[in-house]
Amino acid sequence: MVEDIKTTVRTSFDVINKNDLAAFQKALAPKFHAAFTDVAKRAHTAFPDMKLTVDDVISEGDKVVTRWTMTGTHKGLARQSVLGEVKPTGKRVTVQGITIHQVQNGVIVDTWGVTGKLEALEQLGLMAEYTAALAHKR
C-alpha cells in the first residue's frame, strides 16, 4: 500500500511534466480537477520548459510528503497574487517546494504545501516590484 500511494503521487508529477492534463486529472479527486488543472496550465504557460523533479518521497499512513524542485524559463505570461500579470522575463528559475498529499482509493484527495515563491521572484528580478506592491497594499 505504501508504494501504491507513492506511485500515485510520483505519477502526478510525471504527467504534469508531460503537460498531460487528462492523465493528471485521473490522479486527483474530482473536487480538484478544475483548480489543479488551472494551476498546471498557468505554470506551463509561464514556464513552457518547466520540469518538476521529485527529490524526496516519504509516506506515513495515507499521506505522502514530497520535496521537489521546479526549473524553467519564464517565457510566457505569469500570474502572481500580489503583482498580478507578470510579462515574460526570459530568466531561468529553480524553485523548491514541499507538498503533503493525502491519497485515498488511488487518488489525491487533499494537499498542503509550501513553495519558494520569494526565491522565484528574486530570480526573476521582481523583488523590488513585489515589496513596493506589498507596501502599497498596507
Your description of this structure?
It is a single chain. This protein has helices at 2-17, 21-26, 33-46, 117-123, 127-137; strands at 51-60, 63-73, 78-80, 84-86, 92-104, 107-115. The strands form 2 sheets. Strands 1-2-5-6 form a 4-stranded antiparallel beta sheet. A two-stranded antiparallel ribbon has the order 3-4. By secondary structure, it is α+β, with helices and mostly antiparallel strands. It is built from 5 helices and 6 strands. Helices cover 39% and strands 36% of the residues. The longest helix is centred in the first third of the chain and has 16 residues, at 2-17. The chain has one domain (2-137): Nuclear Transport Factor 2, Chain: A (Roll), CATH 3.10.450.50.
User: How far do the termini sit from each other?
Assistant: 49 Å
Total separate domains: 1
Sheet of most strands: 4 strands, antiparallel
The strands making up the biggest β-sheet line up spatially as 1-2-5-6
* Low-pLDDT ranges: none
Architecture, according to CATH? Roll
Number of helices: 5
The CATH topology assignment is Nuclear Transport Factor 2, Chain: A
Helix/strand-derived category reads alpha+beta
Percentage beta strand: 35-45%
Overall spatial form: elongated
Task: Provide the helix percentage.
Answer: 25-40%
Report mean pLDDT, rounded to a whole number: 91
Give, in order, the helices and strands.
HHHEEEEEEHH
Question: Based on DSSP secondary structure assignment, what is the total number of beta strands?
Answer: 6
Quickly name the level 1 CATH class.
Answer: Alpha Beta
